[in-house]
Design the sequence.
């Protein structure tokens, strides 16, 4: 069974540009989560999507946004990039419903570098 | 920001030794999870705990959900070189606003000397 996949593996942008990161969940999973892992830090929750809707959001500015498509894949968009946005962005997926959304399986991540 | 205190921050051990790490919080958690992350990869789920007092094993790994619901520990027995990596605790804080959101500790870096 294929795990969570993310693309691209690496992304280099300059300050002020926009970045788009993509994620495909494990087959059968309908919930997708995004986390930011800055160098030397733990993971910080960004967004949770389920059935195409944003269900919860972490303490990040509105320039971090995303969406979930009918096939449950997801995009994370970061507008007006700042240097401190450089980080590993991790996507996770889970089954939906109470008791399942806590057990999240992660992809390999996209390394975003902002110059 | 972070609401989990994970310790120790790093460990240097000899192959064959046992390892213990823990996480504590000022908040009550509904779920505790333990992940391992290798360089350049995403975290891999090791053990999931759903009830206070629950003790769960996965091979040489054992984890427990603390009775107070504010802590958890992970033990690794008879460590081997491939145990090297960063171990994270994670959990969901009790309360509706945290639904779907995992809070992570800052990780324990494990080095195993052959």
Sequence:
């Amino acid at each position: 069974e294929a795990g969570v996949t993310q693309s691209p593996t690496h992304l280099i942008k300059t300050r002020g540009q926009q970045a788009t990161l993509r994620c495909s969940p494990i087959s059968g999973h309908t919930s997708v989560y995004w986390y930011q892992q800055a160098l030397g830090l733990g993971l910080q929750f960004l967004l949770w999507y389920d059935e195409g809707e944003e269900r919860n959001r972490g303490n990040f500015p509105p320039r971090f946004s995303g969406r979930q498509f009918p096939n449950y894949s997801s995009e994370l968009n970061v507008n007006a990039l700042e240097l401190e946005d450089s980080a590993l962005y991790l996507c996770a997926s889970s089954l939906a419903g109470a008791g399942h959304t806590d057990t999240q399986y992660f992809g390999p991540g996209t390394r975003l570098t902002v110059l | 920001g972070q609401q989990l205190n994970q310790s120790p921050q790093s460990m240097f051990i000899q192959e064959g030794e046992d390892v213990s790490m823990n996480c504590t919080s000022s908040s009550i958690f509904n779920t505790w999870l333990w992940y391992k992350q290798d360089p350049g990869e995403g975290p891999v789920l090791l053990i999931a705990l759903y009830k206070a007092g629950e003790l769960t094993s996965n091979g040489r790994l054992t984890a427990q959900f603390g009775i107070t619901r504010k802590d958890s520990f992970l033990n690794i027995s008879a460590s081997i070189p491939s145990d090297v990596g960063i171990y994270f605790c994670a959990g969901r804080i009790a309360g509706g606003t945290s639904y779907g959101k995992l809070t992570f500790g800052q990780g324990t870096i494990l080095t195993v000397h052959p």
